[in-house]
């Protein structure tokens, strides 16, 4: 079991490091793909499923997506130094958990991510910034942002299945 845990940890570090080594154009392409894929998830969930919780202890489908949104703004603001258009507001706590409002907030966050990366000079990607109390290269913070949105989008697969909806086909490329 210890060997398996070590292997999983090494794979996670390797995958995150590989993303941090993508060119700026490759990162933009990956974020555009992630936006389309996330939109497919948002479109797949029926309107009445946005307030659905798999169990009482977890976020609703909308809250999962809005948490992803908040993190997109946080990570990109941290990496770029560009102020979040939300300020200190959290969409997870302020945006209505409707299909329309949630979808707009999520898509706006992807637009912010993509436009922010597009405006970042390549030579700034290896500069150090502080995220979650750690000093990290900005490119690694961008990789963590990508990892985070992937994780939370993936969590919503269960919500779709429990509502009897087939999740969107994987959009790996």
Apparent shape: globular
Query: What are the secondary-structure elements, in order, as H or E?
Result: HHHHHEEH
How many helices? The count is: 6
| CATH homologous superfamily designation | dinb family like domain
**Helical amount among residues, as a percent range?**
55-70%
CATH topology: the name is Four Helix Bundle (Hemerythrin (Met), subunit A)
Task: State the CATH class.
Answer: Mainly Alpha
What's the story with the biggest beta sheet?
Answer: 2 strands, antiparallel
User: Any guess at the CATH architecture?
Assistant: Up-down Bundle
Rg over alpha carbons: 16 Å
Q: What class do helices, strands and sheet pairing give?
A: mainly alpha
Strand order of the largest sheet: 1-2
Low-confidence runs of at least 5 consecutive residues? 9-17
Structural write-up:
There is one protein chain. The chain has 173 residues and is mainly alpha-helical. The protein has one domain: Four Helix Bundle (Hemerythrin (Met), subunit A) (Up-down Bundle), CATH 1.20.120.450. 64% of the residues lie in helices and 5% in strands. It has helices at residues 2-20, 24-44, 61-80, 91-94, 99-119, 138-162; strands spanning 128-131, 134-137. It has a two-stranded antiparallel ribbon. Helix 3 runs parallel beside helix 5 (99-119). The longest helix is centred in the C-terminal third of the chain and has 25 residues, at 138-162. The chain is globular, with a radius of gyration of 16 Å. The protein starts with a helix and ends in an 11-residue tail after the last helix.
């Amino acid at each position: 079991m210890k060997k398996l845990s070590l292997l999983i940890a090494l794979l996670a570090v390797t995958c995150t490091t590989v993303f941090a080594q993508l060119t700026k154009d490759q990162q933009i392409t990956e974020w555009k793909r992630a936006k389309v894929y996330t939109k497919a998830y948002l479109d797949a969930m029926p309107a009445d499923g946005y307030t659905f919780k798999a169990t009482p202890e977890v976020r609703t489908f909308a809250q999962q997506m809005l948490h992803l949104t908040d993190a997109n703004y946080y990570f990109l603001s941290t990496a770029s130094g560009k102020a979040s258009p939300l300020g200190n507001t959290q969409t997870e706590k302020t945006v209505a958990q409707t299909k329309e409002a949630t979808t707009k907030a999520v898509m706006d966050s992807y637009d912010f991510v993509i436009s922010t990366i597009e405006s970042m000079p390549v030579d700034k990607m290896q500069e150090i910034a502080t995220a979650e109390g750690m000093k990290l290269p900005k490119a690694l913070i961008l990789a963590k942002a990508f990892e985070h949105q992937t994780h939370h989008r993936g969590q919503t697969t269960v919500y779709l299945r429990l509502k009897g909806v087939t999740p969107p086909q994987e959009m790996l490329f």
